[in-house]
Design a protein that fits this description.
Elements lengths: L3 H19 L4 H51 L22 E7 L6 E8 L7 E12 L2 E13 L25 E2 L2 E5 L2
Antiparallel strand pairs: 1-2, 2-3, 3-4, 4-6, 5-6
């Protein structure tokens, strides 16, 4: 037989062991945590998805703006004419990425106006058009050719995916109006 002191310690040990096995989370506690995580995900997911689209659109906005500036430089360096080749602008921009197709369209002669296009390939992305054109400015009685440029954004994002990019029309000469695209009108960016 065990001494009463050892019996007490043994019973205390068994009792402590039993309590350790009872520790943990109840089913209701776990359910509350799962519900809280679900609510947070439902709130955060739409915001996250809209930020992803904005980030993708920033690519086209930056590239089209860079194409506008490069066209102005090209005009000054190449006998007052624009180019219709993205490669000749020497920007290192690929003509097609996962989300956009970049091309240059011209209205009439390439010496007066070009439209630098970032055409959306994917649904939920807006397209961009950069219009670069010439104008004359009189300085001390002398007419000089200058270049001007502006950037336009689709009013609405594309609704479907496009294999060759959504249609973006060319800009018109002697106007600062944005061209249209496959979703309707385009608006100037400030």
């Amino acid at each position: 037989m065990l001494k009463p002191e050892l019996q007490a310690k043994f019973l205390q040990h068994l009792n402590n062991r039993k309590k350790k096995n009872e520790e943990g989370f109840t089913l209701i506690e776990l359910l509350v945590v799962v519900i809280i995580i679900g609510v947070l995900a439902a709130i955060a997911l739409p915001s996250l998805l809209s930020q992803v689209s904005k980030a993708r659109q920033t690519e086209a906005k930056q590239n089209t703006g860079a194409m506008n500036r490069a066209q102005q430089a090209y005009f000054l360096e190449n006998n007052n004419s624009f180019t219709t080749s993205v490669q000749q602008l020497a920007l290192g921009i690929r003509t097609q990425t996962d989300n956009y197709v970049y091309e240059i369209g011209s209205t009439g002669t390439t010496g007066t106006i070009v439209t630098n296009k970032g055409k959306s390939l994917k649904a939920k992305l807006k397209s961009y058009a950069g219009v670069t054109y010439t104008s004359t400015q009189t300085v001390s009685g002398v007419n000089e050719a200058i270049t001007l440029a502006f950037l336009c954004e689709s009013s609405n994002p594309a609704t479907t995916d496009y294999a060759s990019g959504i249609t973006v029309n060319d800009g018109a000469a002697n106007t600062t109006a944005c061209p249209n695209d496959g979703t309707g009108t385009m608006s100037p960016l400030k």
